[in-house]
Amino acid sequence: MESSNNNGSLEQTLQDGNLYRQVNAFIVAHLRDNNLNQAAIAVASATMTPLNVEAPPNKLLELVSKGLAVEKDEMLRGVSSSTLFDSGAAIPAGYSSIPEPRVVAVDFRQYVSPNYPPTISVYALLFLKVQKANQYISQNSAVHDIKGASKSFPKHETRHVSEHKNVARCARFSPDGRFLATGSADTSIKLFEVIKIKQMMLPDAKDGPVRPVVRTFYDHLQPVNDIDFHPQNTVMITGAKDHTIKFFDFSKAVAKRAFRVIQDTHNVRSVAFHPSGDFVLAGTDHPIAHLYDVNTFQCYLSAKIQDIGVDGSINQVRYSSTGGMYVTASKDGAIRIWDGVTASCVRSILGAHGTTEAISANFTKDQR
User: Fold this and answer.
1) Which domain of life is it from (predicted)?
2) What's the 3-state SS for the chain?
């Protein structure tokens, strides 16, 4: 039952995401085609919608018109326009088994220059109308799923492609979302500035094409396995097959090499900063995670591993948001939860994925 609910929730989320992308595309196309270029650029940048997105002429007005007609028809039939969007209300009989849509309030004014609040506020109000029109169209033209039939998923558009010379083995966003780092089997690390990736969707600036890769580091001798960002500072760490954990300061434009190095005794498969930034946890070919003090580089190992059957390299380590716990995913197939203070194992999930190894594990932000 839980799996069924999860699948339903995922499908609803995908449907919502596709709907939002369609709405954003119609809004951007309408603003652009009506010579409201600055407003179109602002919305396109905020919603990661291509500025040159194609849409039928006046499609937004057509959908809004249909939405208003549906709303008027509902009022004449005595159906409240809010009923369809009340997550706790029953679906009217006339709507059969069509899934009930969820509404997320969107205020586009927060994304644009103060010079354009009147224009954008209009489209913020139009959002619900367009969503209702889309719902009406889907109800009158949708083909109901047949059990066993393959499900369709929304198309995902590639925003930017940057290649390493070999396999890209890891990728990580910075805590503030401003940067993205990737590590490769070619031993290099690339640092991207996210806002520049977004700018690539806009017309070329006068200064020439935008280059989102702002740093490239070369300091490992073997493939890079994992990356993490310091929670407060402009410091990035990498773990690699050359048995090292390296610290890079990406605030310095000319720095291409690490300013600090921890030499481990094993292949470093995974690294994670403690939320305080004072410690680094490393998962290696050793079956126990290695905890390092970033100031002294002293290594600590848990002494409380008796009777838990630890056997196998650690593929990934991750801290909870408070640092009170950390999780390890191991080649022996086990997922283990550890106390972040005492380093004692508080829960072992053996054979978490049957007979295969556990590749990765992570906590949700609320640690549930």
Assistant:
1) Eukaryota
2) CHHHHHHHHHHHHHHHHHHHHHHHHHHHHHHHHCCCHHHHHHHHHHHCCCCCCCCCCCHHHHHHHHHHHHHHHHHHCCCCCCHHHCCCCCCCHHHCCCCCCCCCCCCHHHHCCCCCHHHHHHHHHHHHHHHHHHHHHHHHHCCCCCCCCCCCCCCCCCCCCCCCCCCEEEEEECCCCCEEEEEECCCEEEEEEHHHHHHCCCCCECCECCCCEEEEEECCCCCEEEEEECCCCCEEEEEECCCEEEEEECCCCCCCCCCEEEECCCCEEEEEECCCCCEEEEEECCCCCEEEECCCCCEECCCCCCCCCCCCCEEEEEECCCCCEEEEEECCCCEEEEECCCCCEEEEECCCCCCCCCCCCCCCCCCC
